[in-house]
Amino acid sequence: MTPILRIVLIAASVCTMGYMLRKIRQSKVKIEYSIYWIVFSCILIVFSVFPQIPSVLSKILGIQTPVNFIYLFIIFILLIKLFYNSLLLSKLEEKITNLAQRVAVEETIEKEKAEYKENEYKETGREDNAK
Known about the structure:
DUF2304; transmembrane
């Protein structure tokens, strides 16, 4: 792994970790979501500081260069995160649909109750006038 790539990985990882920590302090991101990015940054820092690890892993997996292994690793981790986010998005969309349907039903029931009371009031008012 070239020294320039190592420096870029360390700098990007430290920036990502700092950004996540700042967002946690500002209460703009949940800790459970930022843990992923902090762990990811730590792994990249370990790969940068100890270039033997990616070299050994790339040889074990049959990847020609450690740089290709790093890129493949990053892509794989981001695809996992994308899949996880897709699952969360699907659950949220289902919850929103259910909530919208529940609100619509409750509003319909309230309108029908109001109409029923209004009709009942009109009917009792007519009977009193007729007597």
